[in-house]
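Thread: "does anyone have the structure for this chain?"

Original post by V.I.:
We have the sequence but no experimental structure in hand. Need at least a predicted one for the grant figures.
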Amino acid sequence: MTALTLSTAAASGLRADAIVVGVAKGAKGPVVAPGAEAVDKAYDGKLASVLETLGASGAEGEVTKLPAPSGFKAPVVLAVGLGPVPEKDETYGTDALRRAAGTAARALSGSKKAAFALPAEDADDTGAIAEGALLGAYSFDAYKENGSATKGKNGKDAKDAKGPLAEIALLGAKPRDKAYKAAVERAIALSEELNRARDLINTPPNDLNPEAFAAVASAAAKEHGIKVQVLDEKALTKGGFGGILGVGVGSDAPPRLVKLSYTSSKAKKHLAFVGKGITYDSGGISLKPAGHNETMKCDMAGAAAVFAAVVSAARLGLEVNVTGWLALAENMPSGSATRPGDVLRMYSGKTVEVLNTDAEGRLVLADAIAKASEDAPDAIVDVATLTGAMMMALGSRTFGIMANDDAFRAAIHDASEEAGEPSWPMPLPEHLKKGMDSPTADIANMGERTGGGLVAGLFLQEFVGEGITWAHLDIAGPAFNEGGPFGYTPKGGTGTAVRTLVRLAERTAAGDLG
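Reply from O.Q.:
Generated one for you, tokens below.
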């Protein structure tokens, strides 16, 4: 993990590989952002002109490197675009700072140290910069011979080996101020757990099956004082978890249900988070075609997010009880696999006709939601890479929110916006329920093809305990980035929903949710 410190040192005197400054897009060209005054002065007040000459505009995501001015110990100044200059009496905003810091950290991969002199008006801004830089500095190279931590077979540094930026110093902050220290400590804890979620999502399925995932969660839980319970295939059979077992029965790697319980002596509310954890999804007997299964190691991203959120809550000492449920299974075709047309008896007692074995996520979630309901939490939030339909509706960077309570859905949307994770409220139209009518069972696991993401939400709602507030986050789009990196978002596993869940827990602890 990249190290991060608050520094009161002058930009000119700090030994580093680069000084990071912000530049915004003005009406008449680039504008040097606050925080870079000392650097600009060393260029005789002409830094904006120099950057414009080099082609910089201040657009978001833009990176321009130039030699540092005379007298600076750092050899390079890196100017990162912040986007448009804020209107009068407005600031750049925490997510613009977060994205810019992430962009700069990615651009400095392979460097030992960088000093960030971005505009930070308060502790929240400093926390956002810290978070963006730490998330942007992420890399996953555990399986590469030429990764940052390894050498080639000849013992020499492997070609093009670039590890993440090793150390970050935030300039202009207040190291002794409690608010600044708390903001940075939060950023470090949250980033470390989110990056651990990314590691899990990126880990190949031959190394991360349900048992292995459960072992990782158990070890982390014990480290951070979280109570853990793991139900193996025998316990699941005895307990009647027909949905989880029905999905996992086709694999040689049996399923698991993991319960993580963080409790605070000062808590007045209890949240339950439920994560879909399909460690590999082949589609089962309803086999996915080529071109649709290569990234299906990411189908456990919901469980990874829930795991990271519970550990983050514990590390931050939030005054709210948080229970995480990881519904873990591998969906594979075999002679023992569930067939289209089979009927499963779920943990709740309901029966489900399986019309499509590739609609498996809702089956494991249904069992976990029903089990979570027995604890009578104040609210349940499930997180899942559930439907391609949600990707078609909202694209690859926005997740959908469905809920049985409009105010709760709005609260989660607010939390996601505060966290910097784009989301959008979605409806649960009653008329779509009829499409899941089954002549054989209580309900089918498929309904109308149009509105498929909403149908999946309606299915899950059937398993929520009576009187319990519930929301469903379909993160199928943003959970795994198949395009190029941007901002603080890497290629591959993104850790989507971790920050939204943590922000929701923080707001609940503060009494903002009633």
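V.I.: this helps a lot. The CA atoms of residues 186 and 436 lie 44 Å apart.
O.Q.: and The chain is about 30% helix and 20% strand.
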